[in-house]
């Protein structure tokens, strides 16, 4: 790293209809540094990097690369300037193989045909640099989990060998061991090739591990640019949020009657391939956390209980009565709710307004008298949730696609809360959500538990598991590796278990 400015944002201003997303933002990124870009949901981070990517044309201001204006660059040719992007919305061609996705635009051909063997070999090498043997380059993108897709996007950018790599929340779907793998690759690229990176994340502890410098945006304005060792976490949070937020408060247990009666009993459950057989109980008033590395089977497990996947063996009971899930609708009628992990596919309807998205699940409830849903009622419910979760939107009628990534996540979260369920499944509920939003979501989850509902949360974030739950089940390769009490569990223990180790070994 040296002191030359490689990239300079100078007075960047961006207006969308009704939203002033960036206000006169200026800062420099030095050659060879990892520069973190921080800010609350909707602060303008993705907008800024999309301007760098030339996806958006700024309203005012200029970006300089090595002192030269980037104004002439286009979204089509920006890679020729040595800049590559991993966007927040994972952009894989689902019908292509992993290899085709990794080499997109750099395809190897044999005559007029793709040389699949050569492509698979090259892609596999790049993928194995991240996590050896974890993803088969020949598989189809649509068969991958969200975390695997994220890794493929990372591999694709690495393959292109850029001078500047921009990563918009690359770790939001990864657990500790995959994050470590990514960070060692970035470290190596820095040392060997003096690569420069712009790094966006809501996981602040990562900033101290990977970044050299940082810039904080708040409501579209730059608040601070400094070296990472010149600022504390507390100060970062204050500059992002404009106030201090306690991020250490643990969940206070427990609902009356907790531990007496299981709401959900799982025995010998298996889908025959990714997980099982597994046994556990979840009590009323409990927040039961399931954690584990990518590929450990967390998502598959809860999706099977919910009826999104078929069980191969095992039995389930809800409130002591047999439960044989047939479909998500069947589950919903049995008062189960699931907030899915892949919110892009299963979550928001992009063209629907925030109001419509929130009321989607509860339409039936709102229209129980047989009349058409009253827009007034819909509005009331939506407005309440928008406030409770501080969803940043120009209005209730704004189409969801215009919201920032984190705010879209909040809309999905809100949408599943409106129904009145007994058992809630949240698959990675705080992915992409800022520090304040996380606290709001924990409050809501705890509120449900206090009402005597059961909440099952999958998370790859250990801090979240420890803070927000009553008990933590760790999965490794589809099997239970440990069941810990969140009061007494510690991070190292979780890490060890998720990697397949045994405590006290
Ligand atoms: N295409 C668009 N049209 C209208 N408004 C937009 C558009 N893209 C972004 N915005 C608005 O600009 C603001 C900044 O959004 P941006 O996506 O840059 O936030 P962010 O900092 O990346 O947040 P997050 O952490 O949630 O991803 C938000 O208020 C958002 O609603
Ligand atoms: Mg964003």
TrEMBL record:
Alphabetical keyword list: ATP-binding, Nucleotide-binding, Repeat, Transport
Domain (ABC transporter): residue spans on this chain: 7-244, 242-502
Transmembrane segments: none
Domain of life of the organism encoding this protein: Bacteria
GO MF terms held by the record: ATP binding; ATP hydrolysis activity
One Pfam family of this chain: ABC_tran
UniProt key word Nucleotide-binding: yes
Annotated PROSITE patterns: ABC_TRANSPORTER_1, ABC_TRANSPORTER_2
InterPro entries: AAA+_ATPase (IPR003593), ABC_carbohydrate_import_ATPase (IPR050107), ABC_transporter-like_ATP-bd (IPR003439), ABC_transporter-like_CS (IPR017871), P-loop_NTPase (IPR027417)
PANTHER family: CARBOHYDRATE TRANSPORT ATP-BINDING PROTEIN MG119-RELATED, GALACTOFURANOSE TRANSPORTER ATP-BINDING PROTEIN YTFR
Name recorded for this polypeptide: Sugar ABC transporter ATP-binding protein
Organism of this sequence: Mesotoga infera
């Amino acid at each position: 790293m040296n002191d030359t400015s490689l990239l300079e944002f100078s007075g960047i201003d961006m207006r969308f209809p009704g939203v002033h997303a960036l206000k006169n933002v200026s800062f420099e990124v030095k050659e060879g540094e990892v520069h973190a870009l921080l800010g609350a949901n909707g602060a303008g981070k993705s907008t800024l990097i999309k301007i760098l990517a030339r996806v958006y044309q700024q309203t005012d201001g200029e970006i300089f690369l090595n002192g030269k204006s980037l104004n002439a660059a286009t979204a089509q040719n920006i890679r020729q300037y040595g800049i590559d992007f991993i966007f927040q919305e994972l952009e894989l061609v689902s019908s292509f193989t992993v290899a085709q996705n990794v080499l997109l635009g750099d395809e190897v051909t044999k005559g007029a045909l793709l040389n699949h063997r050569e492509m698979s070999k090259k892609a596999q090498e790049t993928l194995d640099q991240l996590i050896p043997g974890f993803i088969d380059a020949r598989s189809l993108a649509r068969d991958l989990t969200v975390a695997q897709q994220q890794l493929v996007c990372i591999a694709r950018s690495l393959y292109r060998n850029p001078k500047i790599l921009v990563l918009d929340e690359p770790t939001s779907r990864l657990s500790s061991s995959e994050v470590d793998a990514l960070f060692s690759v970035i470290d190596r690229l820095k040392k060997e090739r003096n690569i420069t990176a712009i790094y966006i994340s809501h996981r602040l502890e990562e900033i101290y591990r990977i970044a050299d410098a940082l810039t904080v945006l708040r409501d579209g304005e730059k608040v601070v640019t400094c070296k990472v060792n010149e600022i504390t976490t507390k100060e970062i949070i204050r500059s992002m949020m404009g106030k201090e937020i306690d991020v250490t408060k643990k969940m206070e247990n427990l609902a009356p009657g907790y531990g007496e009666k299981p709401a959900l009993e799982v025995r010998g459950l298996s889908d025959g391939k990714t997980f099982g057989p597994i046994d556990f109980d979840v009590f009323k008033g409990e927040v039961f956390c399931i954690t584990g590395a990518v590929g450990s089977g967390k998502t598959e497990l809860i999706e099977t209980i919910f009826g999104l996947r078929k069980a191969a063996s095992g039995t389930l009971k809800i409130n002591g009565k047999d439960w044989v899930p047939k479909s998500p609708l069947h589950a919903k009628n049995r008062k189960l709710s699931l907030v899915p992990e892949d919110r892009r596919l299963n979550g928001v309807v992009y063209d629907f307004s925030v109001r419509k998205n929130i009321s989607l699940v509860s339409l039936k409830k709102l229209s129980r008298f047989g009349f058409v849903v009253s827009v007034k009622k819909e509005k009331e419910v939506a407005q309440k949730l928008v406030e409770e979760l501080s969803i940043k939107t120009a209005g209730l009628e704004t189409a969801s696609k215009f919201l920032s990534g984190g705010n879209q996540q909040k809309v999905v979260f809100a949408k599943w809360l409106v129904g009145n369920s007994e058992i809630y499944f949240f698959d990675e509920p705080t992915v992409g959500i800022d520090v304040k939003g996380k606290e709001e979501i924990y409050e809501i989850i705890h509120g449900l538990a206090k009402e005597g509902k059961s909440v099952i949360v999958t998370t790859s974030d250990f801090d979240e598991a420890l803070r927000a739950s009553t008990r933590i089940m760790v999965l490794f390769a589809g099997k239970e590796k440990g069941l810990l009490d969140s009061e007494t569990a510690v991070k190292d223990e979780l890490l060890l278990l998720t990697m397949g180790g045994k405590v006290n070994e």
